[in-house]
Design goal:
The structure holds 2 protein chains of 2 kinds. Chain A is an all-alpha fold. Chain A has one domain: Cytochrome c oxidase, subunit III, four-helix bundle (Four Helix Bundle (Hemerythrin (Met), subunit A), Up-down Bundle). Chain A is 77% helix and 0% strand. In chain A, helix 4 runs antiparallel to helix 5. The N terminus of chain A is likely disordered. Chain B is mainly alpha-helical. Chain B has 3 domains: 102 residues, no CATH class; 236 residues, Cytochrome C Oxidase, Chain A; 223 residues, Up-down Bundle (Cytochrome C Oxidase, Chain A). The chains are: A mainly alpha, B mainly alpha. At the A-B interface, helix 1 and helix 4 of A face helix 6, helix 7, helix 8 and helix 9 of B. Bound molecules: protoporphyrin IX containing FE and copper (II) ion. Copper (II) ion (CU) binds next to helix 9 of chain B.
Chain lengths: 190, 614
């Protein structure tokens, strides 16, 4: 993407804008899932079940990820290379913990008899949280790439890196907020 | 006189243009060095536009040929089709005693399904908006290229991949998907539902998923480019209507295609993971299925939430092209420029809240239907504004009736005809009779199929010199236009009549229905014109490819005397579009027949007291 066209008169940062557009798309996708959920629920034959407690843990994890990344971003400006690298690694570990916490929640649900193929309410839960985990995996890949860059290139040699990393951080904030919305939705629209 | 003005204009860009230092470092041309990266994996928007166009044309020929085959079955059910057996193989069944060849009914459905899918998505979405958004957004805005040429290239290749997968599915021994272009469950959700529902549907859904990715990548790029890379002086209100149309189209795509993707994910879950989002109380060969609790209507909602914006994703670019072509060849400013922009936006907005008009007969609550009736009928208002403005633009103009102009006028004719039938269908009570009949087929083929094709043809004939540096042949172009408009009306007007009589769409044969037998002659008539119109499109294809090498050469930069910036670029296209500075814009693009000048291009500075915006 190095040959991205630039024009000195750019009104907004093109890459950031493209990211926002992509977020709008992803949001529409989830809006569709949630509307389908509401419509289906209203038509009956709907199994109610309580959410596994590990979902609360997931929520704490996303809050931590966002906080850590927010702080890490500032280490670029202050050129604190060590803190910058460790910030990325901590976020990476937290995000993998998030995936594990989701997986654990699914297992708990299956043990309680709510499986993918049973009632549609269960299917929806796996669908929605599953697709969200795919988005998280996308974020993990982006973090791994950031980590590789951070460890190979000295922090001051790459003025653009800050911008790129900013995109990663923004994407993570989005995924995190998305999780919180989904979690609240699943909690209140049983 | 023409030559001197052009010379002056060059000097103008050189002296007063905007220097973005594009040509200072030769980064632009480095990937143009070999054939593969120049023509195949090109990142130049002008090459990508041509890639979209030619791929779209290939698909159009395939899709249209399919319709000829199934029209033959409908129009001449008693004639033998044995002669197409060499092409279709086992899909033509030969009766051993009479030697009579018939289309296998399963394959008839597959053909109808593929025809719809291919034309709607590959031809009228990718082929139309892919081609012209790519070609015109940077050129008309005064940009060097798209915001991200790389994503742009990916967008084409995802489309290509989608095409390859769909093409492969045509050759499956079980046939391609055959449940209709709308892919309603259960036919799409249960692999065992019909022969096309197995592998055929798996490939259909894979192909369209890649297609969605292509549309999103393209759309993100178009929006970013429009907002970010306009040259100096190109305010939003100075953009040509083409750009406004592509811009709103891209927004519609970005917001509606993801919803289709959601529907696809749920279908994939139902097909492969055993969920029942869309399935309930299904019997297959007398056996009750244990998949219960879902609802097929849910899919219809998700599909049409995309599906209705999608029809505007198809028609808006055509509207933009027509507005531009019409203003240039009428030598008159477009009438009501701002009203045109606002109606594009209104149509875009309303298109999101009318989807259930496709479901009046699917068992949705009739009270709910009322809302959708009202919103649907309101769409007629901005549509009528646009039609009024096109006609007023023509009125009193100094019309050049060349091929692009004829197609632009033909577009308006088609859009009026098809729009009016839309108003019938938008009434849920009348829809009880008309739903799923040939009336609907006639409605959407005229308003979307033919009208959008006409917009595309207007665009191709008009911008052909910009793409290939030569003109297409006018005589062949006129034959193409008059032949096509006559056969299009001959095909689709009778269909309204058949539809009002209640003849259902998607039926393989009407021979066993007494009520519909007497339409046999009309069906023959339609089929004959379908074949004629197919032949006429071949005239276009021949004209297109012949002219690439042998067409009349473009000798001046601005052969039509148009105002928009693409005509200030060199005849021989270069990377970065303008050899030196970028043109700076001083006025809106529709200063035609003003101050005793026939046209005043956008980069000509304003005279004292003159206003640049309208
Ligand atoms: C005045 C504006 C329009 C109105 C009120 C209108 C209304 C309708 C209605 C109510 C239907 C459903 C009929 C049924 O299935 O029973 C329909 C079908 C359709 N319309 Fe329109 N329409 C309008 C313009 C358009 C335009 C501009 C396009 C495309 C460019 C379009 C494309 C379609 C398509 C593709 C279908 C059929 C889809 C299918 O069932 O396969 N319509 N229209
Ligand atoms: Cu519609």
């Amino acid at each position: 993407m190095n040959n991205t066209m630039t024009n000195k008169r750019n009104l907004i940062d093109a890459q950031k804008f493209a990211l926002y557009a992509a977020m709008a798309s992803i949001s529409m996708m989830f809006a569709a899932f949630l509307s389908a959920y509401i419509v289906k629920q209203a038509s009956g034959n709907w199994l109610e079940f309580s959410l596994p407690s590990t979902f609360y843990l997931s929520t704490v994890l996303v809050l931590l990820i966002s906080a850590v990344l927010h702080k890490t971003k500032s280490f670029i400006n202050t050129l604190e290379s060590g803190l910058y690298k460790s910030g990325i690694v901590v976020a990476l570990v937290l995000s993998i913990l998030f995936i594990i916490s989701q997986y654990t929640s699914w297992n708990t649900l299956v043990d309680r008899g709510v499986d993918l193929k049973g009632n549609v309410s269960g299917s929806f839960l796996y669908l929605i949280t599953g697709i969200h985990v795919l988005d998280v995996i996308g974020g993990v890949v982006a973090l791994i790439i950031s980590a590789v860059y951070a460890f190979i290139f000295p922090i001051h040699t790459h003025p653009e890196k800050g911008q790129k990393f900013d995109l990663v951080v923004n994407y993570w904030h989005f995924v995190d907020v998305l999780w919180i919305v989904l979690f609240l939705f699943l909690m209140f629209y049983k | 006189m023409a030559n001197t003005t052009i010379y002056e204009e060059d000097v103008l860009i050189k002296e007063q243009g905007f220097n973005d230092h594009f040509h200072d470092h030769h980064h632009g041309d480095k990937y143009q060095t070999n054939f593969i990266f120049h023509y195949v994996f090109s990142m130049d928007h002008k090459i990508i536009a041509r890639q979209f166009l030619i791929t779209g044309m290939i698909w159009a020929i395939i899709g249209a040929a399919m319709s000829v085959v199934f029209r033959m079955q409908l129009g001449f059910p008693e004639e033998s089709l044995a002669w197409i057996k060499p092409f279709l193989g086992k899909w033509i069944e030969i009766d051993p005693t009479t030697g009579m060849g018939k289309l296998v009914p399963e394959f008839y459905y597959a053909l109808v399904t593929m025809h719809g899918t291919i034309i709607v998505f590959f031809v009228l979405t990718a082929g139309l908006s892919g081609t012209f958004s790519n070609l015109l957004i940077p050129l008309q805005l005064g940009a060097r290229d798209m915001a991200s040429p790389f994503l742009n290239m990916l967008s084409y290749w995802f489309f290509f991949l989608a095409g390859i997968i769909m093409f492969y599915s045509l050759f499956l021994s079980t046939g391609p998907f055959s449940g209709g272009w709308v892919a309603y469950p259960p036919l799409s959700a249960l692999p065992q539902a019909s022969s096309g529902s197995g592998t055929g549907m798996t490939l259909w859904i894979m192909s369209l998923t890649f297609f969605v990715v292509s549309v999103l990548l393209g759309g993100i790029n178009y929006i970013t480019t429009v907002l970010n890379l306009r040259t100096k002086g190109m305010t939003l209100w100075r953009m040509p209507l083409t750009i406004w149309a592509f811009f709103v189209t891209a927004i519609l795509g970005l917001l509606s295609f993801p919803v289709l993707a959601s529907g696809f994910f749920m279908l994939i879950f139902d097909r492969s993971l055993g969920t029942s989002f869309f399935l309930s109380e299904i019997f297959i060969e007398g056996q009750a299925l244990d998949r219960v609790g879902g609802s097929p209507i849910l899919f219809q909602h998700l599909f049409w939430f995309l599906g209705h914006p999608e029809v505007y994703i198809i028609i808006l670019p055509a509207m933009g092209l027509v507005s531009e072509v019409m203003s240039v060849h009428a030598r008159k400013p477009i009438f009501g420029y701002r009203a045109m922009v606002y109606s594009i936006m209104a149509i875009g907005f309303l298109s999101f809240i009318v989807w259930a008009h496709h479901m009046f007969m699917s068992g949705v609550n009739p009270f709910l239907s009322n809302f959708f009736v009202v919103f649907t009928l309101i769409i007629a208002v901005p549509s009528a504004v646009k039609v009024f403005n096109w006609i007023t633009t023509l009125y009193g103009g100094n019309l050049r009736l060349n091929t692009p102009m004829l197609f632009a006028i033909g577009f308006v004719s088609m859009f009026i005809s098809g729009g009016l039938t839309g108003i019938f269908l938008g009434n849920s009570a009348i829809d009880i009779q008309l739903h799923d009949t040939y009336f609907v087929v006639a409605h959407f083929h005229i308003v979307m199929g033919v009208a959008a094709m006409f917009g595309m043809f207007a665009g191709i004939y008009h911008w052909y010199p910009k793409m290939y540096g030569r003109f297409m042949n006018e005589t062949l172009g006129k034959i193409h236009f008059w032949g096509t408009i006559i056969s299009a009306y001959a095909i689709f007007w009778p269909m309204h009549y058949i539809g009002m009589a209640g003849v259902p769409r998607r039926y393989f044969s009407f021979e066993s229905f007494d009520a519909f037998k007497h339409f046999a002659d009309l069906n023959k008539f339609i089929t004959i014109f379908a074949i004629i119109s197919f032949a006429l499109q071949l005239v276009f294809v021949i004209n297109f490819f012949y002219s690439i090498w042998y067409g009349k050469k473009m000798k001046t930069k601005n052969p039509w005397g148009a105002n928009s910036l693409e005509w200030t670029t060199p005849i021989e296209p270069i990377h970065g579009n303008w050899p030196g500075n970028l043109p700076v814009v001083h006025r809106w693009p529709y200063d035609y027949s003003k101050d005793e000048r026939e046209f005043i291009p956008q980069h000509i500075p304003l005279k004292e007291g003159e206003i640049g915006d309208h």
